[in-house]
Write a structure and sequence with these properties.
single chain, 75 residues, binds iron/sulfur cluster, two-stranded antiparallel ribbon, alpha+beta
């Protein structure tokens, strides 16, 4: 389970975030590129934009697929 006290740099404020367990696999970025972005060096993802209501299902898919459980949703 992701930890909101350990967010990666770059996460915009809001319910969805990526924490420091991220291994930079970029799966979430591939699933929902408008929501999850990668750092310039590709080492980690962050939430670049909180999902709109119509995008929550896609964000939830990324959360479910993350191999290390680094995506959180505090909503
Ligand atoms: S799917 Fe998980 S481990 Fe992979 S880049 Fe996204 S947050 Fe990081």
């Amino acid at each position: 389970m992701a930890d909101s006290a350990s967010k990666t740099p770059g996460n915009v404020p809001g319910a969805w975030y990526v924490d420091t367990n991220c291994i930079g696999c970029s799966l979430c970025n591939g699933t929902a590129p408008d929501i999850f972005a990668m750092t310039d060096d590709g080492s980690a993802a962050y939430v670049a934009r909180q999902p709109a209501v119509s995008e929550v299902e896609l964000a939830a898919q990324a959360l479910s697929d993350c191999p290390v459980g680094a995506i959180g949703n505090d909503a």
